[in-house]
UniProtKB/TrEMBL annotation:
This is Uncharacterized protein. Residues 1-36 are annotated as: Disordered. Gene3D superfamilies: Leucine Aminopeptidase, subunit E, domain 1. It comes from the Eukaryota. It comes from Polarella glacialis.
Length: 307
């Protein structure tokens, strides 16, 4: 006898653009205390969403998808050289939603994201299991929302793992706040973030320590509307050595900065080659030991800060 075949029809994903941050003043808080922060090193966002939805009936889960400024989401021209990075496109109906976005938004997706908007795609179904396990078809598909936003590809960073430009850091913080507001406005209870553009994630290179700390502050600020937040890699080992720094900053904040002088004393215009180290006089002024060959030829060295 021929084997029976079961056919299930999934709902068509639909996308909506949010050019402005939604107003949450009239929405009731969903949580009383601070938000729950979960960090996962070995599970991707689709697997986490599948476990949450199957374990708690009726909970609404949102997956965050980042892309670099000036480019549409990579799913429109998918590069499957590393299928683990394309898990969202391989395992869900989000790839179909990307193809339909220009028609549903009546605009080019790249231009919409470049303007700072957030695109919310509802009724995205997770159809397959993890790629490393063969991406098997799931007997019970899971439905989630996907929030897509663009971030800068190469913000300037310093040696201490922080954004070197205040405006660039503020732009990232604004985008993350926009994502939380869109999620809260659509009753999303659990939000799952991939790495915030760290170490090549989403084609971007953001500082691990500052990006993790920025994300942590946003989670705590919006905890009353989005009570649970997960942060994960797209696959184990994606961030390599940067993961420990990023995960620690998300859990407990970044390490304190080491504040250094803007101009080292040895770079002072009052120092010349061969002069000794500066010392503090009894009057509280800096003085220098001048070599014998210069004595009698040069005028007295003025105190620092005076002509």
């Amino acid at each position: 006898e021929p084997e029976s075949t079961e056919v299930r029809v999934t709902k068509q994903p639909s996308s909506t653009v949010y050019p402005n941050v939604p107003n949450l003043s009239d929405r009731k808080p969903k949580g009383q205390g601070p938000a729950e922060i979960h960090v996962s090193e070995d599970k991707d966002s689709c697997s986490i969403a599948q476990e949450i939805v199957q374990g708690s009936s009726g909970v609404r889960v949102g997956l965050v998808c980042f892309t670099a400024h000036g480019e549409p989401p990579s799913g429109q021209t998918p590069d499957l050289g590393e299928p683990r990075e394309a898990s969202l496109y391989l395992r869900t109906t989000y790839l179909q939603a990307l193809q339909d976005m220009p028609r549903q938004l009546h605009a080019d997706v790249g231009d919409v994201l470049a303007a700072g908007s957030v695109v919310l795609t509802q009724d995205v179904c997770i159809l397959r299991g993890p790629v490393q396990d063969g991406a098997r078809w799931l007997p019970d598909p899971v439905r989630v929302d996907v929030l897509t936003a663009a971030i800068q590809r190469h913000p300037r960073c310093d040696v201490q793992g922080q954004y070197a430009r205040i405006a660039e850091k503020a732009d990232v913080a604004k985008t993350v706040d926009h994502i939380f507001a869109c999620a809260a406005a659509n009753d999303v209870e659990v939000l799952i973030f991939p790495p915030l553009g760290v170490n090549g994630a989403a084609g971007c290179h953001h500082p691990a320590a500052d990006a993790g700390d920025l994300l942590r502050k946003a989670i705590l600020e919006h905890g009353q509307h989005v009570p649970r937040v997960w942060v994960c890699q797209e696959f184990p080992g994606q961030l390599k050595s940067s993961w420990a720094t990023f995960a620690s900053a998300v859990r407990s904040g970044r390490e304190p900065l080491e504040h250094r002088e803007l101009v080292p004393l040895t770079a002072s215009p009052y120092l010349r080659p061969g002069w000794g180290e500066p010392c503090l006089s009894a009057k509280g002024q800096f003085s220098f030991k001048v070599p014998l060959r210069y004595r009698g030829r040069q005028r007295a060295v003025p105190p620092l800060g005076k002509p």
